[in-house]
Amino acid sequence: MKAKIVYASMTGNDEDMADILEEDLQDLGFETDSSEVAFADASEYLDSDLCIFVTYTYGEGTMTDEIADFYDQLKELDLSGKYFAVMGSGDKTYGEHFCENVFDYQKAFLACNATEITAPVTIENAPDDEAIEAIDQAAREMADKLNG
Ligand SMILES: Cc1cc2nc3c(=O)[nH]c(=O)nc-3n(C[C@H](O)[C@H](O)[C@H](O)COP(=O)(O)O)c2cc1C
Prior knowledge:
The longest helix is centred in the C-terminal third of the chain and has 19 residues, at 129-147. By secondary structure, this protein is α/β, with parallel strands linked by helices. Helix 1 (13-27) packs across helix 4 (129-147). Strand 3, helix 2 (65-75) and strand 4 (83-90) form a beta-alpha-beta unit. It has a single domain, classed as Flavodoxin domain (Rossmann fold). Strands 1, 2, 3, 4, 5 and 6 form a six-stranded parallel sheet that branches. The chain has four helices and six strands; from the N terminus they run E-H-E-E-H-E-H-E-E-H. The model has no long low-confidence stretch (mean pLDDT 97). The structure holds flavin mononucleotide.
């Protein structure tokens, strides 16, 4: 099974999440490919069974240019028959905007007819032990659904 991970990260927290997830998925037998959003094209998801987007949220309800561009590419795709998962790091002091871009992308994948494989994992700032366990658990769910 192939998993494509695309991540957006300014200060490294989401890159750390993507790295943890990629290592988990490799341990669980997936063939993985991971790209930073600025160097990825959403059409690369078409070669994967599992499409993953890991993102920060900056800017209270808006998207940075790099994730807005990727979002526009994603919206053009038909991902019928593929699974997806979204996750990301934010900060709860932003209230209703906590991890908002994670949920924006969840809606976009659903609009592309992809099937959500596991609930979004949202964490605060850098991944701590609890966050790592949540990512590990999500990876196990992905493996159970795709290999089980
Ligand atoms: C200017 C600024 C705006 C932010 N806006 C939000 C926000 O709207 N919602 C949120 O959950 N976190 C917000 N954050 C927190 C970041 O998303 C959080 O620090 C995240 O871990 C950064 O991920 P990165 O290290 O991958 O860039 C903001 C941080 C900064 C500095």
